[in-house]
């Protein structure tokens, strides 16, 4: 978690640097398209701050009011990021409309584009880096932050091409049109972040591959049992919650059943990162003859 926090703080620093560079590009040119690119970078700063807060809160231990921990703080942060992205797109639409009504020529385009390309290169490198780490650390807020940075890269590349077209064709109104397209792209990006976060907040099950791993471990690591049924999974940040009913012989001693559960928990925790396992032991007459047959 300390490493995740370092990445989040690094994202904030990178976002401020990129924001400053893009503002210079906009100030030099007066381009609405570059303004929209700058405005999206303001959201990058906001998303980095949200990621820092989420990582800090999600790392807090479970307490009386939050017995399952604070893992979902990451997803609440990702929802906030999605909302901020959508707000940015609406601001861009407002400026684009004003540009359609009163188009203005772009000044010093070569210098502005060169400055903007430097900011884009920084965003691309850092965005790919934190997405890779965020997925490995199962940090929803870091992944959301990285995805927005990459969305910003795509936006910036489109803006660069568009500004070149404005200069080459002399069609000043294209500047506002490009800004509007940037707004649509950002709006779609925000929707994607909200959709992914919503699935986690609604306790979505683990991926099929992980579920197969869990079923395989239960099937092979408890030969003293009869079956396992009512397997349920959900993920929340870095934690994966696994619970199921384990049917054993009615004459089995409590100590033996407990040892079987300990073995299963250890195997699941070793195979599934952040596994939190709950097992309900039942006597043979509770067998449903379906679910997972123990080998």
Automatic annotation (TrEMBL):
The alphabetized UniProt keywords are: Membrane, Transmembrane, Transmembrane helix, Transport
Which SUPFAM superfamilies does the UniProt entry name for this protein?
Cation efflux protein cytoplasmic domain-like, Cation efflux protein transmembrane domain-like
Membrane spanning stretches: 43-63, 75-98, 110-129, 150-170
Q: What's the domain of life for this entry?
A: Bacteria
* Start and end residues of each Cation efflux protein cytoplasmic domain: 207-283
- Can you name the source organism? Kaistia defluvii
Where found? Membrane
Q: Where is the Cation efflux protein transmembrane domain?
A: 11-202
- Keyword Transmembrane helix assigned: yes
**Pfam families attached to this UniProt entry:** Cation_efflux, ZT_dimer
Q: What is this protein called?
A: Cation diffusion facilitator family transporter
Q: Which InterPro entries match?
A: Cation_efflux, Cation_efflux_CTD, Cation_efflux_CTD_sf, Cation_efflux_TM, Cation_efflux_TMD_sf, CDF_Transporter
Q: Per the record's keyword annotation, is Nucleotide-binding included, yes or no?
A: no
Which family does this protein fall into?
Belongs to the cation diffusion facilitator (CDF) transporter (TC 2.A.4) family.
Membrane-topology descriptor: Multi-pass membrane protein
């Amino acid at each position: 978690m300390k490493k995740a926090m370092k990445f989040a703080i690094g994202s904030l620093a990178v976002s401020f640097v990129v924001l400053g560079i893009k503002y210079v590009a906009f100030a030099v040119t007066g381009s609405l398209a570059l303004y929209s690119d700058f405005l999206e970078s303001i959201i990058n700063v906001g998303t980095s701050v949200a990621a820092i807060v989420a990582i800090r809160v999600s790392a807090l231990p479970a307490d009386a009011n939050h017995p399952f921990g604070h893992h979902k703080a990451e997803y609440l942060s990702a929802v906030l990021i999605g909302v901020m992205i959508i707000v940015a797109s609406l601001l861009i639409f407002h400026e684009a409309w004003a540009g359609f009504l009163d188009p203005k020529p772009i000044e010093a385009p070569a210098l502005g584009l060169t400055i903007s390309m430097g900011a884009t290169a920084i965003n691309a490198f850092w965005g790919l880096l934190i997405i890779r780490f965020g997925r490995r650390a199962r940090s929803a807020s870091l992944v959301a932050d990285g995805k927005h940075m990459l969305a910003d890269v795509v936006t910036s590349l489109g803006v660069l091409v568009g500004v070149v077209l404005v200069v080459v064709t002399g069609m000043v109104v294209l500047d506002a049109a490009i800004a509007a397209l940037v707004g649509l792209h950002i709006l779609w990006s925000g929707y994607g972040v909200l959709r992914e976060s919503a699935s986690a907040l609604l306790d979505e099950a683990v991926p099929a591959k992980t579920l197969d791993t869990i079923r395989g471990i239960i099937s092979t690591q408890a030969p003293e049992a009869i079956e396992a049924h009512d397997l349920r999974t959900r993920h929340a940040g870095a934690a994966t919650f696994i619970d199921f009913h384990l049917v054993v012989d009615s004459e089995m001693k409590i100590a033996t059943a407990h040892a079987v559960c300990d073995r299963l928990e250890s195997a699941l925790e070793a195979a599934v990162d952040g596994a939190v396992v709950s097992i309900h032991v039942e006597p043979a007459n509770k067998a449903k003859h379906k679910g997972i047959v123990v080998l």
